[in-house]
Amino acid sequence: MRLSRYFLPVLKETPAEAQIVSHRLMLRAGMIKQASAGIYSWLPLGFKVLRKLENIVHEEQARAGHIPMLMPTLQSADLWRESGRYDDYGAEMLRITDRHGRDMLYGPTNEELITDIFRSHVGSYKDLPLTLYHIQWKFRDEVRPRFGVMRGREFLMKDGYNFDLTKEDALHSYNRHLVSYLRTYERMGLQAIPMRADSGPIGGDDTHEFLVLADTGESEVFYDSQITDLKFGDRELDYDSVEQCQAVLEEFTSRYARTDETHDVAEFNKIPEDRRRTARGIEVGQIFYFGTKYSEAMGATVQGPDGKPVPVHMGSHGIGVSRLVGAIIEASHDDKGIIWPEGVTPYHVGIVNLKQGDTEADAACESLYKAVQAVGLEALYDDRDERAGGKFATMDLIGLPWRITVGPRGLKNGVVELTSRRTGESVEMPPQQAIEKILEIYHPHHHHNIAQPMAKQSFHTWV
Ligand SMILES: Nc1ncnc2c1ncn2[C@@H]1O[C@H](COP(=O)(O)OP(=O)(O)OP(=O)(O)O)[C@@H](O)[C@H]1O
Ligand SMILES: [Mg+2]
């Protein structure tokens, strides 16, 4: 993408309404524009990051064997009356009446809709286990939408639902989701800690929330400091293996880590004092096992091996995709702007032409721009006729992890400059070497690296 042809409405002034850094930076970097309270348009740069996150979610769901689909945003109230949640959900549910006087609602979550699909089409235990998911907009009429996309009213969520014959099988599904979520967040450059949580309006006994530690987080969290040393990393794992998934669950949940809702002071105080931590966290996902709550209420049964109908055991699992854009910025920025982790960056590299209009500099930038494309990566080329200082400030603000700077002086010596956004470190090298370096960063040669997609395939491959 050439910046001269892009739509990147960066703001010079810090917007007064934004209270936290991610909200400020998303507005300043031209990623979002508020449409009304808690509802945002995703401008091109923000949309690109959102799509990258969706893509990681799809790849990791595919890896775990879960099946993508798409359900509508508007739902009929009747299904929610069957589960009893039409009344329980309260003022957070946006209720709509259509022209025929039918009660509709904008889905805050999809347990009812998916259970209806399941009961209509699945009749035998032989069709289990089954896990379906989608990535779709949700609406919750939050009392106090704030912090930009972190607590919106309309927000993008990945929500998945597992159907299993027995509690045991459903608990394996639960563990499998925990594993796949750990991998998902790590690929986004985040450490998200699973913490024992409260089930809220979804209901059920077993539930963990995933929290990213950040001072601006809305949850108060309590944990054993040893937990932050845990890494899923690039380990190989068989998602069908009950033992392997169980072992990961135990590894990541055996140390104390809870939100204020489930915090137990007596338990917490059993940890050696120097390891006790109190902090704030951003909830970026949650997994639930709720057994037969919905299947019994809505008659979602299958014929068991003995021919008798059994209500299926279910769980649901959510990732806050749009909130994650803000969470990643909260976890990765400095006073100049955003610093995207390589796995989610909207463009892999920025190219800055220090002297637009200079024949040699223009030609060198053009060939770098094409070379980046040729290796399957994306560059954002600042080809505007602007001063170097302004170009650097824009690149720093929008946070591309790598920048190649091209100017007449360097070119005389046959070099360009490669700069890391994170460390600020610059190294001069011939253009070809800069391309090789970039390629190596994004496609390191060992194939099992977690930062790598399963294969170089587009989003559409996963659906
Ligand atoms: N208002 C919101 N804006 C943006 N993302 C949200 C919002 N509400 C929930 N999410 C995201 O969707 C995920 C799954 O939804 P879930 O039903 O667990 O939310 P929740 O527990 O009600 O969230 P919260 O406690 O933050 O209100 C959450 O972990 C969160 O990341
Ligand atoms: Mg939650």
Bound ligands: adenosine-5'-triphosphate, magnesium ion
> Can you identify the CATH superfamily of the largest domain?
Bira Bifunctional Protein, Domain 2
Question: What is the share of helical residues?
Answer: 25-40%
By CATH reckoning, the class of the largest domain would read Alpha Beta
Strand content: 25-35%
Structural class computed from helices and strand pairing: alpha+beta
Give a quick account of the main beta sheet: strands, pairing sense, barrel closure.
Answer: 9 strands, mixed
Radius of gyration in whole Å, from Cα? 24 Å
How many distinct domains? Answer: 2
Report the principal-axis shape: globular
Output the number of helix runs: 14
Question: What name is given to the CATH topology of the largest domain?
Answer: BirA Bifunctional Protein, domain 2
Task: Give the low-confidence spans.
Answer: 446-463
User: What is the β-strand count?
Assistant: 23
Q: What is the arithmetic mean of pLDDT?
A: 94
- Oligomerization state: single chain
| CATH level-two architecture of the largest domain | 2-Layer Sandwich
The span between the termini is 27 Å
